[in-house]
Specification:
Layout (H helix, E strand, L loop, with lengths): L9 H9 L19 H12 L4 E8 L5 E6 L2 H13 L4 E7 L15
Antiparallel strand pairs: 1-2, 1-3
Length: 113
Protein backbone atom coordinates (compact mmCIF):
# COMPACT_ATOMS: atom_id res chain seq x y z
CA UNK A 1 0.00 0.00 0.00
CA UNK A 2 1.48 3.34 -1.08
CA UNK A 3 0.90 6.41 1.08
CA UNK A 4 1.73 9.95 0.05
CA UNK A 5 4.27 11.59 2.36
CA UNK A 6 4.90 8.31 4.21
CA UNK A 7 8.47 9.43 4.89
CA UNK A 8 7.35 12.67 6.56
CA UNK A 9 6.04 12.52 10.12
CA UNK A 10 2.42 13.53 10.70
CA UNK A 11 3.59 16.59 12.66
CA UNK A 12 5.44 17.95 9.63
CA UNK A 13 2.34 17.59 7.47
CA UNK A 14 0.27 19.37 10.12
CA UNK A 15 2.80 22.22 10.36
CA UNK A 16 2.77 22.63 6.59
CA UNK A 17 -1.03 22.71 6.57
CA UNK A 18 -1.03 25.53 9.13
CA UNK A 19 0.63 27.82 6.58
CA UNK A 20 -2.46 27.76 4.35
CA UNK A 21 -4.44 30.95 4.73
CA UNK A 22 -7.92 30.60 6.30
CA UNK A 23 -9.15 32.84 3.48
CA UNK A 24 -7.91 30.47 0.77
CA UNK A 25 -11.18 29.09 -0.60
CA UNK A 26 -10.14 28.36 -4.18
CA UNK A 27 -8.01 25.37 -3.27
CA UNK A 28 -4.72 27.12 -4.07
CA UNK A 29 -2.01 26.38 -1.57
CA UNK A 30 1.46 27.54 -0.62
CA UNK A 31 2.47 23.97 0.29
CA UNK A 32 3.17 20.94 -1.85
CA UNK A 33 0.15 19.41 -3.59
CA UNK A 34 0.98 15.99 -2.13
CA UNK A 35 -0.04 17.23 1.33
CA UNK A 36 -3.74 16.58 1.91
CA UNK A 37 -4.86 19.63 3.91
CA UNK A 38 -8.53 19.67 2.84
CA UNK A 39 -9.69 18.97 6.39
CA UNK A 40 -7.69 21.92 7.73
CA UNK A 41 -9.02 24.27 5.05
CA UNK A 42 -12.58 23.03 5.63
CA UNK A 43 -12.17 23.70 9.37
CA UNK A 44 -11.15 27.28 8.56
CA UNK A 45 -14.18 27.74 6.31
CA UNK A 46 -16.47 26.31 9.01
CA UNK A 47 -15.00 28.69 11.57
CA UNK A 48 -15.54 31.70 9.29
CA UNK A 49 -19.05 30.57 8.33
CA UNK A 50 -20.06 30.57 12.01
CA UNK A 51 -19.38 34.30 12.25
CA UNK A 52 -22.41 36.50 11.68
CA UNK A 53 -20.88 38.42 8.80
CA UNK A 54 -19.91 35.34 6.75
CA UNK A 55 -22.45 33.30 4.79
CA UNK A 56 -22.42 30.62 2.10
CA UNK A 57 -23.90 31.48 -1.30
CA UNK A 58 -25.11 28.53 -3.39
CA UNK A 59 -25.60 28.76 -7.16
CA UNK A 60 -27.69 25.89 -8.56
CA UNK A 61 -29.14 25.17 -11.98
CA UNK A 62 -32.82 24.20 -11.90
CA UNK A 63 -34.32 21.62 -14.26
CA UNK A 64 -35.68 24.42 -16.46
CA UNK A 65 -32.16 25.85 -16.89
CA UNK A 66 -32.56 28.88 -14.62
CA UNK A 67 -29.72 29.58 -12.17
CA UNK A 68 -31.02 29.97 -8.62
CA UNK A 69 -29.01 31.74 -5.93
CA UNK A 70 -29.52 31.10 -2.22
CA UNK A 71 -27.64 32.40 0.81
CA UNK A 72 -27.20 30.11 3.82
CA UNK A 73 -26.07 31.05 7.31
CA UNK A 74 -25.10 27.43 8.03
CA UNK A 75 -22.39 25.60 6.06
CA UNK A 76 -23.94 22.18 6.66
CA UNK A 77 -27.29 23.32 5.22
CA UNK A 78 -25.51 24.67 2.16
CA UNK A 79 -23.63 21.38 1.73
CA UNK A 80 -26.90 19.41 1.92
CA UNK A 81 -28.39 21.67 -0.77
CA UNK A 82 -25.37 21.12 -3.03
CA UNK A 83 -25.52 17.35 -2.45
CA UNK A 84 -29.24 17.21 -3.34
CA UNK A 85 -28.78 19.24 -6.52
CA UNK A 86 -25.75 17.23 -7.67
CA UNK A 87 -27.57 13.95 -6.86
CA UNK A 88 -30.26 15.10 -9.31
CA UNK A 89 -27.53 15.45 -11.97
CA UNK A 90 -27.59 19.25 -12.05
CA UNK A 91 -24.75 21.76 -11.73
CA UNK A 92 -24.21 23.47 -8.40
CA UNK A 93 -21.46 25.37 -6.60
CA UNK A 94 -21.00 27.26 -3.35
CA UNK A 95 -18.82 30.10 -2.18
CA UNK A 96 -18.13 31.80 1.13
CA UNK A 97 -19.20 35.44 1.16
CA UNK A 98 -18.92 38.28 3.62
CA UNK A 99 -22.04 40.35 4.17
CA UNK A 100 -21.53 44.02 5.00
CA UNK A 101 -24.31 46.26 6.27
CA UNK A 102 -24.88 49.45 4.29
CA UNK A 103 -26.94 52.54 5.08
CA UNK A 104 -30.25 52.49 3.16
CA UNK A 105 -30.90 55.51 0.95
CA UNK A 106 -34.11 57.06 -0.32
CA UNK A 107 -34.65 57.36 -4.13
CA UNK A 108 -33.09 60.85 -4.16
CA UNK A 109 -29.90 59.55 -2.57
CA UNK A 110 -30.56 60.86 0.94
CA UNK A 111 -30.29 59.02 4.22
CA UNK A 112 -33.46 57.24 5.44
CA UNK A 113 -32.86 57.85 9.15
Amino acid sequence: MHRANASRPAEANHEAAEHVSAGDFNGASTIARTTDDRDDRRAGVIQLSRRRDFYVRVYSVRRDGIVAVQVFADLRSAERKVDRVRAAGLACRMELIRVVAVQPLDPEGGDLR
